[in-house]
Write a structure and sequence with these properties.
globular; MFS_trans_sf; transmembrane helix
């Protein structure tokens, strides 16, 4: 593997961030896995799985505009510290709720919604701050790809640990370990040495700044296109993950460990995809790679959907994870490397809206659809939609290339 794979680690602040966030994210994925398992075990309802995803992500959609403006208006570092303490508080509340056994599914859903509100402010601040953590800005795409590898390595490890913890110790241990994991990321943030924050003069109110961000996206077609594609994938395809407990419990007749393993191999595929992206040499055509990997994602889902032989299903789940990775990482990289720094927080809030906002709506849609036509047919339909989006991406790229060549010939 080329040395360029880890170039971003030359920056001390980024190394600190990466190590702290790595530990915290394992806890986050443990909590996500445990929440899904508890809700499905209590209700045996696919719709409730979709509703839980909706509750955890829709508040991010509603409040991400404010999160983006806050990230551009105020000290991103302090904002990120506040959101990490708030997330730790949410995890402690969830742990206490499960520990004392007097809970209803609606209380778990309410706490998931609280985390969604926190994330609306956390994501724009965190993603924008990565830019400031990297000393050499040429290493930014590498840092973003390494971020994705970290997210997906934790997705690989977290659900697997959660599956074992759920069987051996109980749900409250999963939630408690997540609460403890925030100490690592808060500690790493406190050890950073960032440039002194300079307060920027503000000439517009919050709504004026929101409008300015929206106008900027409208006038930048390359960014607008990426956001539309991500929104479609997030609405119609990414909620396939809400149906994994159904495969684990009903199709493969498994336990919490089966659920953890399927989730982990999706994470393994996504981790491999992130390392592949981190290893790319600067200057590669990311849009073409995005289109190719969208086709891989779609093919993986179609093959996984009706496979009843568990080991083969795990292979197809891994392929799906590899293709899925590009949707999130390349979209983020294309935005971060082309956006005006003064607009970074607001544009990332639109990215968060497309990613977090469409998924919960899709979760309700996919949960309802799977009740009607069955889970395997629903996942197959999602795979076919992904293939169509991948071919549409290639068509757009060919047209864009033709336009560019025509413009060059005219010059």
């Amino acid at each position: 593997m080329e040395i360029s794979t880890f170039n971003a680690f030359k920056s001390r602040n980024y190394r600190l961030y990466f190590s702290g966030q790595s530990i915290s994210l394992i806890g986050t994925w443990m909590q996500k896995t445990a929440v899904s398992w508890v809700v499905y075990s209590e209700t045996h309802s696919k719709f409730m799985l979709g509703l839980t995803l909706f509750a955890s992500m829709f508040p991010s959609f509603v409040f991400s505009f404010l999160g983006g403006v806050a990230s551009d208006r105020y000290n991103r570092y302090k904002l990120l510290l506040i959101t990490q303490f708030a997330s730790m508080g949410q995890a402690i509340l969830l742990t206490l709720l499960i520990f004392f056994r007097h809970y209803s599914v609606w209380e778990i859903i309410a706490l998931s919604a609280l985390l969604g509100i926190i994330n609306a402010f956390d994501v724009p601040a965190r993603q924008s701050l990565v830019y400031e953590m990297v000393d050499d800005k040429a290493d930014l795409p590498n840092a973003l790809a390494l971020n994705s590898s970290m997210v997906n390595l934790s997705r690989l490890i977290g659900p697997g640990i959660a599956g074992l913890a759920l069987e051996k110790f109980g749900e409250d241990i999963c939630f408690g370990l997540n609460a403890v994991s925030f100490i690592a990321v808060i500690g790493s943030l406190l050890m950073m040495k960032l440039p002194k924050y300079l307060e920027k003069p503000r000439t517009k109110n919050v709504f004026g700044e929101l409008k300015e961000g929206f106008q900027y996206i409208k006038q930048t077609p390359s960014i607008a296109f990426v956001l539309i594609m991500l929104a479609l994938i997030s609405l119609l395809v990414l909620p396939f993950s809400t149906l994994i407990p159904v495969y684990a419990k009903d199709i493969f007749k498994g336990t919490a460990s089966t659920f953890g393993v399927i989730d982990s191999v999706i994470g393994l595929g996504a981790f491999c995809g992130a390392i592949f992206l981190a290893s790319l040499k600067p200057g590669r055509n990311l849009r073409k790679i995005l289109a190719t990997n969208t086709l891989i994602f779609g093919a993986g889902l179609v093959l996984f959907s009706h496979t009843t032989y568990y080991p083969i299903a795990l292979v197809f789940a891994t392929i799906s994870g590899f293709g899925m990775m590009s949707q999130i990482t390349i979209s983020n990289t294309l935005i971060q490397t082309t956006v005006d720094p003064a607009m970074r927080g607001r544009v990332i809030s639109f990215y968060a809206m497309a990613f977090f906002g469409m998924q919960p709506l899709g979760g309700l849609l996919i949960g309802t659809l799977s009740q009607w036509i069955g889970t395997p047919d629903t996942v197959m339909a999602q795979g076919i939609i992904t293939l169509i989006i991948g071919f549409a991406l290639f068509r757009f790229l060919r047209k864009d290339e033709a336009k560019r060549l025509k413009a060059e010939q005219e010059v």
